[in-house]
Amino acid sequence: MLSYKAPIMDIKFLFEDVFGYYPHYEKHPEFSEATPDLVDAIFQECAKFCENELLPLNQSGDKEGCKFDNGKVITPKGFKEAYQKYVDGGWQSLSHPIEHGGQGLPPSLGMVKSEMMGTANWSWSMYPGLSHGAMNTVQTHGSDEQKELYLTRLTEGTWTGTMCLTEPQCGTDLGQVKTKAVPNGDGTFDITGTKIFISAGEHDLTENIIHIVLARLPDAPKGTRGISLFIVPKIQVDQQGNLGEGNNVVCGSIEDKMGIKASSTAVLNFDNAKGVLIGPENKGLECMFTFMNTARVGTALQGICASELSYQNSLLYAKERLSMRSLTGKKFPDKVADPIIVHPDVRKMLMTQKAISEGGRAMIYYTAKIVDDIETAKTEEERKNADDRLGFITPILKAFLTELGCESANHGMQIFGGHGYIKEWGMEQIVRDVRISTLYEGTTGIQALDLLGRKILLSRGKSLKSFTKEILIFCKDKSMLSSNPHKRQMNKYIWALSKNVANWQQYSLRLALKAKKNRDIVGSASVDYLMYSGYIVMGYFWAQMAQAAYEKLAGDVENRDFYRAKIKTAEFYFERMLPRTKSLAKTMMADPKTLMQLDEELLSFL
Asked: How many domains does the chain divide into?
């Protein structure tokens, strides 16, 4: 049976000591109500809801799965009741605008809420989670009438939302979208086509589902330039939001999946379904990126949720499971054997899980501050600067953290040994559930091409220069300024981080020069380059956490072991995980000819 306790101490450490969230909230008048007392109360109440309501449904939901019956989807037992408690508790409206029924609290608080809920029960959290992207898209690109009609009910949670991109013939290559949108002459359009892999596309939790759909107008240009975006409700609504007839949106089936079995993944058939245009004609892909960036950061969070859940359960098991004796002598002579936590290899796996969970959480919370800044930007320049920062780090978060989430989940199964392969313990479920995170919202390879191809090469490294400058300023401040009394302890982190950042800049330049001669270098190097970048970024945040821990230990603080553990984990990361950049540097700089020189017909002799 899985167990979970929300890591509130770690969350508060990041909020208060590492990222200075309360001064951050104070500088934004919109977030004046986000006081330490209120935020702490939100953390505590959210933890209770996740631990008491969502966690007990995690394994049972996986076992039962969703049921499909003649176009209808029935969610597992307890899901509907938990969703109603979620709505009644005001959790859906937490970080959305007051004018549409929201509480107006910072998006960053919504990210913390999503982390707790996703760790307790990722499948359940996907139902309300998909609504947030739809809401952000309508908020950014919708008309005043569309906002009034749809956002109010999405905010209160009586309706949910989806994103409908993928079709049978195309996944990431959305230029192949065939769904048609025919104008009716009254401002509405008839939408016809099939969408697949639609998370939360059909369910029984709410009275209506609002689909955000990519489709083509009759005279649209070919390729991605000819895609428009439409709002298509499952049930038709009038201007007052009253429900009418069905809208010819039919769930043809749900997928029989490897994991996240309690989350319905639907095939949706649109047969002259009524929809309305959102945003400009033929600019749908640009508008959809509002949705996609939200979804990608949310998917990055799945890697951390899986890592945290796996780590917490692995740690408990490793303390209790008895097997063999420590190589340095008996540690528990009164027992028949020592607990496996005394063995170095088990410790290495546990420490890797801990470093991933806490380092990844720091990366997510850093990004959440950027999202706050976008939300409150007063000028277009401020918004663009924040959006550029978000755009640079998003592919790293999405791909790097989900890949490490899979690694951490596998470590958890390994620590349990044969018991990890048995459903009773829940470890194999975590492995199955998190595996999708490297695939949906753009595979690791797609994110890597986005990072190296678009964010580095096409922009001439502008965002990289800005981010590495931020890291180097941190390194200079913590190693040279006399105002830092902990610079001696910090030097071991600063030296390694500074060296890696310098190499990161040089390798990026060398790849750019190589790409001018052979474009295949972009594809062959991109995934290794992204992972290489991810380890350096996580190292930056582990250095910040070490600095904050040293500062806390210099004062009269309770829970001193917590801060000592931070420092020891930072040491582990820099000695055992950051050096992975060395092998990645070699492989990403290798000539792509070893990948491409074997002719297609020679790949198999079957």
From this structure: 1
